[in-house]
Amino acid sequence: MKRNQSLLVTGLIAVMISSAFAVNSVFPASAATRKPTADRPAGTRTSQSAQTTQPSRQEADLSSLSSKKIGWGQGRNFDELNRPRDAVTSQEKYGELGGLFIGLPEGDGSENRKIYLTFDEGYENGYTAKILDTLKEKKVRAVFFITGDYARREGALVRRMIDEGQVVGNHTWRHYSMPEKSLETCREEIGLLHDYVAENFGYEMTVLRPPKGEFSEQTLALAKQMGYRTCLWSFAYKDWDANSPGDTTQSLKRLNERLHCGAVYLLHAVSSTNAAILGDFIDFARSQGYEFVTP
User: Fold this and answer.
1) End-to-end CA distance of the chain
2) Catalytic residue flag (residue 39)
3) Which of 168, 170, 211, 217 has the highest CB neighbour number within 10 Å of its CB?
4) Residue 260 annotated among the catalytic residues of the structure
5) Alpha carbon separation from 55 to 49, 58, 64, 98, 220 (Å, rounded)
6) Is the pLDDT of residue 145 over 90?
7) Residue 185 scores a pLDDT above 90
């Protein structure tokens, strides 16, 4: 009798152990108890799209999005708030894909009296240091979009931008028109510069400006998957011709007259005029109640 009871107990224990093993096989340990994965290499970007039954455009497969090239310019048609209508429409249309054309009012509908100040750095013309001096004096942060060539040639200026708290943006490695290239090439163009800056300056870029302002739905979504926000603009003027810098009085008047809520200003650092009028523009914008912010 005692022997039969012992065998019965042994059998029950075996069943319990087997059941526990089966449960653990079906329901693995929770995320909180799993060993964390190793950190990804510097510059590696991954998509973190939420799981939904009907993915939105930014979560969709890139091949399902349009590859049609869109050449950006803010246009000359303005609304009652002095905002370019094209910028407002494009923000509403492409904002979910990571595009920044203009800052729109926040949830309470209040005015977005903020300005994004950005500079394109295709090459160095001797004025970036003066621009940085002004930004430091005025305590303003801006975005400087650099290319691979600029990063390699102008390391001291890039280091100064970073050390002084400015934002360094990705203008791609070779300045190709992104919609004219394959998605693989676009990924490489963004990734090469991202990794170079991360490895040589210890800095992680998160803002992209597509060369020539040309983009597609696919390139917007690709950049977002890589951890980037694509920054276009709602104000720009002909300031990139270093041989024709323009009159300082007229240029400053143009910058001041086009002030609007959520403005994204594109200026070129090759312009002696921009370097000369920057401080006055900052002072005027602040006198009108505007705050300078970065993406």
Assistant:
1) 80
2) no
3) 170
4) no
5) 9, 8, 12, 15, 16
6) yes
7) yes
